[in-house]
Write a structure and sequence with these properties.
- By secondary structure, the chain is of the alpha/beta class.
- It is about 50% helix and about 15% strand.
- The protein contains 16 helices and 12 strands.
- A 6-stranded mixed sheet has the order 8-9-10-6-11-12, sandwiched between helices.
- Strand 8, helix 13 and strand 9 form a beta-alpha-beta unit.
- Helix 5 packs antiparallel against helix 6, helix 5 runs antiparallel to helix 10 and helix 6 packs across helix 7.
- The longest helix has about 55 residues.
- About 35% of the residues are buried.
């Protein structure tokens, strides 16, 4: 049996390693806040959320398949929690079955019978839930799941299982047949159906056991050992078969706990956002090929989870462009916008809802970040060397159709060198079919990209200020403007604009002085 609640075919790989970008994504996008909100203190759910979110889907059809199941669960949250509770209870009950350290067929069989007794009752309860609620769901995934429960776990299945378990407890003893081989050793052992135990009337009227019955003396240890060996030879195949069946059903429940656990994480997150009055929507995923990003009210979900009140969202129309450049004042919402795009991309490709009023975006083959790092006292090389080394690793992992978020990269050296490095890298990435989002304070870099864009339709956004100079934390389309930390600090302290900086091409060079002049 396969639940197929995370993907249309097969079970998810529970042991698949995360990509090399997972650590940087977690750090740069603040994913720990997201995972904590999804798990609500449950370590298992947190691990599930982390694994599924960081293992992106790359097929829009697979994303939509998962979204439809999520929509059903959001409409029936109590049903989801009831099923997840049943699955968790089943796994916990199996863990309470005393493990066997003896690998004899008899001990293996006894433990397998105990496990199957538990599983039979829990499968019946799962089938009952399906019968009661199958008509309420609409998604193809859940419709198929409940149909599987109805057909695979029908009444005939449970009747056969109950009958086999009753016989495998061997209340009337074990009946084994075999033949004699070379040296009078047993061969061709076959476990037979036990003879029915005679009633009291038959036991009173019969004269006693048949003539071929042999009873071991009470103190015949060697005989007891030989008889136990014969019993184990007869039980071996049945014990192995029943143990494999129990493992198969346990694997089903374990996989189902992972699949349902992910949707419980989504439900926890959705309820938290709803309680805050924060909007969310199921995005529209488009195939990889033509870059697309169209959003309304897109906001940083992790920032919303850490603070009270609504977080400012942004509206962006960036369809058809592989490059978005964001410039503007310090603390104007540039890095927040970059995180909101990265989080929305990850959540969309996990089949989740996103933090926006609406979102349409193309699916990317991978998501990577390159953020500025704080100075490290133990850093063995210069800051620029460290930036370039990290960037070299990112480039080594990239494939066509990937997406890279740059946050104030190339700023570890002077503006001229940093801008030149940035220009060459960004143009190379865009030409290699990699989508780039760049937040930068390097005016020379932004201006050159604006004058000679590496791709048609490149979108430029800048932090917006109100007429009184205060921040709105919204971005608006517009060419890059000269800005600096000094200008922003002056504006914040004195509440008025500093003397406007002139672009480099408007600066008049001072006349050269003769070396002899004093």
């Amino acid at each position: 049996m396969k639940a197929c609640l995370l993907q249309a075919e097969g079970d998810p790989d529970r042991d698949a390693p995360l990509g090399p970008e997972a650590a940087d994504l977690t750090r740069d996008l603040g994913l720990d806040t997201l995972f904590d909100a999804m798990a609500q203190g449950d370590g298992f759910l947190r691990d599930v959320a982390r694994r599924v979110v960081l293992t992106s889907l790359t097929d829009p059809a697979a994303i939509v398949y998962r979204q439809r199941i999520l929509r059903d669960w959001l409409r029936h949250p109590d049903l989801l929690r009831q099923m997840f509770g049943l699955v968790v209870e089943t796994i916990a009950a199996e863990h309470r079955v005393w493990p066997t350290f003896l690998r004899s067929p008899d001990s293996v069989l006894r433990r397998a019978v105990q496990m199957m007794d538990i599983f039979t009752g829990q499968l019946r309860a799962l089938r009952k839930i399906g019968d009661e609620h199958a008509a309420q769901v609409e998604s193809p995934g859940l419709v198929r799941f409940f149909d599987m429960l109805r057909t695979e776990l029908d009444d005939a299945y449970f009747h056969v299982m109950d009958e086999h378990l009753r016989r495998l407890k061997f209340k009337n003893g074990v009946l084994v047949s075999c033949g004699l081989g070379q040296g009078c050793k047993g061969r061709d052992f076959v476990l037979r159906r036990p003879n029915p135990r005679p009633g009291w009337r038959a036991r009173l009227t019969t004269g006693g056991p048949p003539a071929y019955t042999y009873r071991l003396p009470d103190r015949d240890e060697e005989g007891s050992r030989a008889l136990a060996e014969l019993r184990d030879r007869g039980l071996g195949l049945a014990a192995d078969a029943l143990a494999q069946s129990a493992d198969h059903i346990l694997s089903f429940f374990t996989t189902l706990s992972l699949e349902l656990g992910f949707y419980v994480c989504c439900l926890n997150l959705h309820q938290k956002l709803t309680a805050q009055g924060a909007p969310s929507c199921l995005p529209v995923p488009l195939p990889t090929g033509r870059p697309a990003l169209n959003c309304r009210g897109l906001y940083d979900i992790c920032l919303s989870l850490r603070r009270e009140g609504r977080v400012v969202g942004n509206d962006v129309d960036a369809d058809g462009t592989p490059l978005i450049v964001v410039t503007g004042a310090n603390e104007g919402g540039k890095s927040t916008f970059l995180r909101s795009v990265g989080l929305a991309q990850l959540m969309m490709q996990a089949g989740m809802f996103v933090a926006a009023d609406s979102l349409t975006a193309d699916v990317r083959t991978g998501l990577f970040t390159h953020y500025r790092r704080e100075e490290d006292a133990d850093m063995r090389s210069g800051k620029l060397d460290e930036e370039l080394a990290r960037l070299s690793d990112v480039v080594g992992w990239l494939t066509p159709g990937a997406m890279v978020l740059f946050n104030e990269s190339f700023a570890a050296t002077n503006e001229r060198e940093g801008s030149e490095i940035g220009r060459q890298i960004i143009r190379a990435l865009v030409e290699s079919d990699v989508k780039v989002l760049l937040v930068t304070h390097l005016f020379d870099l932004a201006r050159s990209l604006h004058e000679r864009p590496p791709a048609q339709g490149t979108v430029f956004l800048r932090a917006r200020r109100r007429a009184d100079g205060k921040r709105t934390f919204r971005l608006q389309p517009g060419a890059p403007l000269p800005t600096s930390f000094g200008d922003d600090l002056y504006r914040d302290v004195f509440g008025e604009p500093a003397r406007p900086s002139r672009p480099p091409d408007e600066v008049t060079a001072a006349p050269r002085r003769d070396p002899g002049d004093r």
